[in-house]
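LAB NOTEBOOK - FOLDING QUEUE
OPERATOR: T.R.
BATCH SIZE: 2
PURPOSE: Compare the predicted structure-token outputs for two unrelated chains run back to back under identical settings.
PRIORITY: normal
REVIEWER: second-year student, initials M.K.

ITEM 1
FIELD SEQUENCE / FIELD STRUCTURE:
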Amino acid sequence: MADTAREHAPRAQQRVALFDNLKGLLIILVVCGHIVHPVHNSNPVLSACFDVIYLFHMPMFVLISGLFAKSTYRDGHLNINRIISFAMLGLLFQGALLLVNGTPVTPLSLLRFPSAPWYLIAMAWWSSATPLLAKLRPVLGMAITLALSLLSGCIELEGGFLALGRTLAFAPWFALGYYASRAQLEHLRTRKFCWAAVAFASLIIAARIVDPHAYEAFIPMVYGDNPYEGTLVAGIASRITAMLVAAVCSLAILKLTPSTSGKLTVLGRRTLQIYVLHRLIRAALTFRTGFYDQPILDEPVAGTIILLTLSASVVYVTSWGALERPFNSLLTIAWDKLLPRRNR
């Protein structure tokens, strides 16, 4: 969730409010999606919110991660330290989550990522692929990652082993961000057809509000780790549909997100700490308390107000400024200097 190493640019251009705002908005949706998850099948209002959030929030987050991954491989040098940092942080996050969940910590459980830590492991995989992406022309790189994504649905990877399922499923979004530039995305949001995307996204959301079954044909594909059901053609069609819907909604969000600095900008700089801590809080509420057993949470009005308020509170608490530097420093550890050097 933290930025990969920034593109080489003048100091004044190193942070662009638009992209921090996008990350800030998306991390709010991530927290909301996880907080409401335990009751999203029983509270109809939160069920609709959950489905709409999952249409686009992860593809767009992956795209932004790819956008800022360009310096992971530059001038023939791969930043192996960043890759190791993502993997180590993912493993530590996984171990902490298992402990909070009350699940035995074993080698197998540490290597299966069915929940939040998968993203950090996937970042290690995607970052490792940047040398290949850099050598491929964008059209070929996109074609290969799209083919891998579509074919990954043929394999049962739901257990989350090494986060391979989601890594492959969302790979085209990382590649798209990698091949795009910040200037291109900033220009894209000024195009008039983005308003058409806003209109279509509104219709997509309205369809889910009107009909709880509106997304049934493709909703399993938005999670990234579900294999195809039925025929291969139907499975590929459902994944492509999910991608197209995510693209439309992402364009709409890009258009509507403010480009000036504000509170979202601050949240966008602190996504890593929010991502890790909020999921541990959710796990504690689920497995260490009876919070989610309260019948009131299933009520459309009262339950929705309670859980959305809780989501906002969790974002506020986990975005504590004092945690920004320690968390971000975890991704700048010089692992190569910690390893013993061979005697010459």
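ITEM 2
FIELD SEQUENCE / FIELD STRUCTURE:
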Amino acid sequence: MTPLDFNLLLTLDVLLTEQNVARAAQRLKLSPSAMSRALARLRETTGDPLLVRAGRGLVPTPRALELRERIGPLVQEIEAVMRPLNALKLSELARTFTLRSSEGFVENFGAALIRRVADEAPSVRLCFVQKPDKDSTALRDGAVDLETGVVGATMGPEIRAQALFRDRWIGVVRKGHPLQHEAPITTEQFAQGRHIAVSRRGVVGGPVDAALAPLGWQRQVVTITGGFVAALALARGTDLIACVPERHTQNLRGDLHSFALPFPVPAFSVSLFWHPRQQADPAHMWLRRVVLETCGEKDDGSQAGQGAPGSASL
């Protein structure tokens, strides 16, 4: 039997992740022709075409889809075996970690994360970047170390996830708003108000609107913003009503009046995402633990960090 070239496992993992010869070659620092030759060897070894032409792109065969679920853990295990076994020394760790999140996460959790990291690993730098969409390419490419949000259909099948906390939608108005003196607020009073919608794509519609529709009500949306921070700022200076996630905006609503919605809207889970190549990295494992303990919920159901308990567009 011909000995297996274990480099082909890594090549196969990257090819099945990227589904593009040029991008896979770039990640592995190979020429496109060398990657094409590697794909030919993989096809010969597995007896399957693996990636076939569909229009201008490549799509995986059923055999490739089966292998994609199995190859990632294999590559990860091999990398862990070959990695030098050195104890992580946080006091000496000098590294920049990039966290991608939607607007509101940094404003609400960023300060606590920075304090925790500074206490344990003073030379570690956190780089927070905005999340314009739910595409997982940045995690795949290594441009982002961690991401937070709600699991979506566009998330790559290989991406690892860990639930951080449950959240729910609430209403927010300025202090002194007429709704502040209504107890309890009715669905009719809520729906007949003037509203701020939050949408990265600039369209009206979401969980709150979907919950209102069966009740025969529709919000009067007079403005649309791309994030929760802007929505809260507008609610602060107008008589408009904003709907935001409770836990996600905990530290941003101190000078506003918040209220429970008078009709049921499904709660949702905010999760932490990373690529499997980082699964066994000691420094990355430490960072995941820090984020989970700082921003997440404790095992007993109460929430870690500050604040009280509370598909979304996070």
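REVIEWER COMMENT (ITEM 2): The chain has ten helices and twelve strands.
FOLLOW-UP: none requested
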